[in-house]
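Lab notebook, bench 4. Still working through the backlog of constructs that have no structural model yet. Next entry is a single chain of 258 residues. Request: give me the structure tokens for it.
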Amino acid sequence: MGDTDAAESREVEQNAARYPDVKAELEAIQSSLELYATAHSAAPPTGLKNQIWSKIQSENTSTKTVANDPVPTRRADTKVIDISRYRTLLAAASVALLVSLGVNYYLYNRWNDTSARLASMQSEQTELAKQFEAKRASFEQSQQELALLSKPTMKPVMLKGTPTHSDALAMVYMDMASHDVYLMVNNMPATPSDKQYQLWAIVDGKPVDAGVFSMSGDTSGLHKMGRFENAQAFAVTMERLGGSPTPTMETMVVIGNI
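Model written out:
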């Protein structure tokens, strides 16, 4: 690079002569520079040599030349630059650039990996939070239902399946103090897409609409269906969507007396 004086240059040469590793390293750097220069060399444009030669001749018309020598004598004030002194600098810059690119690529991959892991952990945390909230809500609902069923005024009524639906089973819980009626579905067959179940309260021997429900959603737990006084029995029939003003006796699924 030309940064050493004569004494330092001699010391480098002596070390290279004494230590093979130093000599090998210097030769490797020089070879790398030469390979780099060769790989990035470009052929000069056609006619460039003639243009340069003409320029030199025009600027040195006053300089004497040796007879029969096509090359003019170099002017005394012409500065000659030794390009070889910059080989080490160019080689070091090339190595530094390659190292920098390698480090940046490594850090970029690490950053992408860390970002992906962070996004995955955040997604898992969100999913766990949703599951926890669902469990908490289910637990609170179960606690409320247990407290409700534990009331001394609550009377259970088992609705058993009819001969055509012998496996069907449902429970009605009637608060004898408030007359509120709650339904719990234990085992009911699925309904067609154009049908719904309808609960009936038998009051004074007549069926009274107690509300409709479907099996497509969450049917677990208690479902408040209405308030009835003097009900003697409950039954469930399968009706059209939205319910029917009167029960279709042929589609009765379960029935039970208080």
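Notes after review: The chain has a mean pLDDT of 80. Helices lie at 6-18, 20-39, 48-59, 87-149. Flag for follow-up if needed.
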